[in-house]
Amino acid sequence: MEKSKERKLAEIAYMYYIDEMSQSQIAKEYGISRSMVSMMLNEARAKGIVRIEIKNSELYCFDLQRQIENIFGLKKAVIVPRLSKNEEGLITQLADGAIDYLSQIINNNMTIAVSWGRTVYEIANRIRPNGKTNIVISPLVGGIGNEINTYHSNVIADTMAQNLGASSLGLYSPVFVATKEVRDLIFNDKSIKKVIETSEKADIAIVGIGSIASSTMTEIGLLEEDDIKQLLDSGVIGDISTCFFDKNGEETENIFSKRTVALKLEQLKKIPTIVAVAGGDKKIKAIHGALKGRLMDVLVTDEVVARSILKEYEGN
To answer: CA 188 to CA 285: how far, in whole Å?
Structure first.
């Protein structure tokens, strides 16, 4: 808790002293009063966080955040240092960075749509109530895998709902079906249609970014080697909520295009705030492609990924 508070003090101090934002602008950004901003700036000085430069700025990589935001037109970039040496530790860092941001924007009477995967599950598992009420959590995508597992969007929706004191919906369909005709029948089911429409009208979407070359869908047996080959041949490099895209973030026509039970990319992009959370070396190309395609409003990633993307951007 103390670390989280110091991190918030450091970020507000950075915005005020380095970005030269007014206290009123910062108050609007965080949804707090101007007097609260003033008190926090005073506290930052009292704690020695602010001297000539901002102390503890290593908690978030503020300079990288601003560069990524400006280049790719994001509402917000949250860049965490890669402190952990293993994937599980990095996922925890990314989840905590996402939760820190989500706590600022989740409000009463909101619908939050969630995708699937390890990082999104970790967010759902670690998030805690923020005092807001009448929140609904709704899945964006059908079931991943042959059985209910922790990556499943329904499990994620239920877990997040329990931890936020919210309610949740379930999307009871596999994500990939045999034919377009089967998909169309599923979409016409009254209960599934309700969930899809609820997710489509969500205020916030929380998604991961998958790399097709190193996909969790392969690990859990959802995609076979031949599927991966055909997707790669179609120009696919990654996916967001099982919407497959190419190196420029454009949705591609592929073997699953007409057989997927999920919001289409064009529907997903209409959600006011899409928070994408992903990191690690294997996902650099997919994250860069998603940024090029403006497939998210908020990106939570790690500094190694951010620096690699900026280096490639500057080299072009």
So the answer is: 36
**In this structure, what is the dihedral angle of CA atoms 33, 35, 37, 41, given to the nearest 10 degrees?**
-170
By the 8 A CB rule, do 121 and 156 touch?
A: yes
Return the minimum-mean-pLDDT range out of 54-68, 116-130, 171-185, 269-283. 54-68
Sign of the alpha-carbon torsion through 79, 9, 298, 71:
negative
Residue 229 pLDDT exceeds 70:
yes
Q: How far apart are CA 162 and CA 279, in angstroms?
A: 26
Residue range 44-57: mean pLDDT, rounded: 66
Q: pLDDT of 165-180, one tens digit each?
A: 999 999 999 888 889 9
Distance from C-alpha of 95 to C-alpha of 87, rounded to nearest angstrom: 12
What domains are defined for the chain?
1-58 (1.10.10.60), 60-315 (3.40.50.1360)
The H or E element spanning position 154 is helix 153-164
Q: Per residue in 251-267, pLDDT tens?
A: 988 888 889 999 999 99
By residue count, the chain amounts to 316
**Sheet strand arrangement including 111-114:** 76-80, 298-302, 273-277, 204-208, 111-114, 136-139, 167-168
DSSP helix/strand/coil, 275: strand
Residue 57's φ and ψ, nearest 5 degrees, are -65, -10
